[in-house]
Amino acid sequence: MIKDLKICGVSDPETLSYILNHQHPPKFIGFITNYKKSKRYVTYDNLKNLINVDKKKTSFVSVLVSPTNEFLEKIKDLNFDYYQLYDVDPLRTFKIKQKYKIKIISALTISNEKDVDRYKDYLDISDIILFDSKGYHKSESFNHNLLERVPDEVNKMIAGNIQIDDIPNFKNKNFMIDLSGSIENNEGKKDINKIDRLLKLFAKT
């Protein structure tokens, strides 16, 4: 079965409260913290209030693309359990983890086998390796069969335009999955009904 579930791109308190109080909450909730190109981006002032809640057993993830040192200092006291880092090399990832004493999800964007093999550079640093598409905020897909070369013991998460109806197809897999665009409405806002369906379906896997 799928190991765990992450809902990414939450940006309003109503949706967050619904997810946290659901009968089957996900293991992770992600917040777009510094990537302003994303429609799911949350400003710092709104973020402070949004995540200042009881997380219960769910881990909060700050999604960061090439964060500056200044920005990392700005968010260091916020209610996050993980930093999900895009476009951050292994050495800087290590320094961030050591300085802020936080768990790390290293996000690799994938289009070929060479991209996949970069996970080896992060194995001793990151708590989770996320394999995502090149589309970043655009919820694009990539060939998940490329991940067959990654050993079972690697703690991995997969993103990239995964749909709710894909969940049953992930049975007997040894990874976590990350969804965002597939649980939104036509206006790009998180859809409570889709989230409910996702969480109930995941609970059955």
Give me some keywords for this one.
single chain, 205 residues, alpha/beta, TIM Barrel, eight-stranded parallel barrel, 6 helices, 25% helix, globular
Quick one: CATH class? Alpha Beta
Poorly predicted parts: none
Q: How many β-strand stretches?
A: 8
Largest sheet: 8 strands, parallel, barrel
Radius of gyration: 16 Å
Strand order of the largest sheet: 1-2-3-4-5-6-7-8
- Rounded mean pLDDT is 92
- Decide which structural class fits the backbone: alpha/beta
Distance between the termini: 6 Å
SSE run: EHEHEHEHEHEEEH
Helical content, roughly?
Answer: 10-25%
User: What is the overall shape?
Assistant: globular
Named CATH topology: TIM Barrel
CATH architecture: Alpha-Beta Barrel
How many domains, in number, for the residues? Answer: 1
User: What is the tally of helical segments?
Assistant: 6
Question: How would you describe this protein?
Answer:
- The chain contains six helices and eight strands; from the N terminus they run βαβαβαβαβαβββα.
- By secondary structure, it is α/β, with parallel strands linked by helices.
- It has one domain: Alpha-Beta Barrel (TIM Barrel), CATH 3.20.20.
- An eight-stranded parallel β-barrel has the order 1-2-3-4-5-6-7-8.
